[in-house]
Amino acid sequence: MEQKEVLIGPFKQLLTMCNLPDKGALSDKQLEIVEYAGIWISGDKIKQIAGFDELRLVIPEDVQVYELQKEYVCMPSYIDCHTHIVFGGNRANDFAMRNAGSSYLEIAESGGGIWNTVKHTRERELDQLVDITVLRANELIKQGVTTVEVKSGYGLTVEEELKILRAIAWANKQSKADLIATCLAAHTLPKDYSGTAEDYLSDIAERLFPLLKAECLTNRIDAFIEKSAFTADQIQDYFKTAQNMGFDITVHADQFSPSGSQVAVDFNAVSADHLEASTDHEIALLAKSDVVAVALPAASLGIGCTFTPARKLLDAGACLAIATDWNPGSAPMGQLIASASILAAMEKLTNAEVLAAVTFRAAKALNLTDRGRLAKGLLADFVIYESDNYQHITYRQGSLQPSSVWKNGEEVFSKN
């Protein structure tokens, strides 16, 4: 089939996010901004970025031209590299109890917590979970997010985890976003499991991992390393098995207490996520490694705890990504730019650092090299705002919504 070619522009400002390092602090002066730019798209990829008038002179006659009549800003579409959007029910009562002073244990004993979501998710049929996932992915698309990592972890049996991961696979075929599945069967020890934590992990590794490979459901294994979930010692064999089978490792690390970052570095994980409790020791470990540090500011807001030490991580030389952690318990917001902008204010992050954290650095957390920047040969994934200044994206703290979102060279959302 002949590839469709399109030219769109002119953009008042186009941020390529190119020529920026994967790690460390960034200045806004380092941002590459092309003024009055055009994007020439061929199929699902970018063919060229240059001045709009310059491109109009060289494109063939059969290239479709979208000439913009207002002032717009364009940048790579966003990558949400940590979500839990496959879930049933809600935990609004947890939030109310937490704000009224109840502890995590008290909430769990009253019927809340992760186990509450597990029960509601298990009650959903496969097709219901598919519909739920597509609906939430489409909400993210409206925000400019076109690649979404999606975790399991609310099944906690081989059969229920498979149901969730199959739902993600089916939802990926129905949504315009790319959904990247991650197995989080090691989310917590299920209350209805009669054995030890070690028994549970061994059972999952032995029975579930081969099925994940056979059905090509995911190449990513995650675990929650925390006193209330699995310890650093307990997770060793589980991760060794996963790594030996060719899975990428990612870790829920240092949310309430440190130890997960060390495991992430030891296993050369692609990312260590949360990090609210990371000390200078963990920050130094991550900075010296290739592990992406993923901040989840909405979880800090939802729980009412400290934020990930993003400023210290960047200054130490780490690679920082930012994600929503969209889940029914600690992070029900599901708003990437709003939560990232709040983190920027609290941690004093530059616009360049924030935008890198939701584009190419977030792509690195998913081992993706074909997106997150706007350049020849990369996917034509970009977001367009009606504005004359890219700074308004974070300045408006999420209230400036995209006018248009493009994925794989196709407009997948428009306000008009």
TrEMBL record:
EC number(s) stated in the UniProt entry for this protein? 3.5.2.7
Say if the entry is tagged with keyword Ribonucleoprotein. no
Main EC class the enzyme belongs to: hydrolase
Q: In which pathway does it act?
A: Amino-acid degradation
A cellular component term from Gene Ontology for this protein is:
cytoplasm
Report domain Amidohydrolase positions. Answer: 123-413
Which GO terms label this protein's molecular function in UniProt? Answer: imidazolonepropionase activity; metal ion binding
Biological process (GO), any one? L-histidine catabolic process to glutamate and formamide
Q: Which InterPro entries match?
A: Amidohydro_3, HutI, Metal-dep_hydrolase_composite, Metal_Hydrolase
* Alphabetized Gene3D superfamilies for the sequence: Metal-dependent hydrolases, Urease, subunit C, domain 1
UniProt keyword Lyase, yes or no: no
Annotated Pfam families = Amidohydro_3
Ordered alphabetically, the record's keywords are: Cytoplasm, Histidine metabolism, Hydrolase, Iron, Metal-binding, Zinc
PANTHER family associated with the record? IMIDAZOLONEPROPIONASE, IMIDAZOLONEPROPIONASE-RELATED
Q: What is this protein called?
A: Imidazolonepropionase
Q: Which organism is it from?
A: Sphingobacterium olei
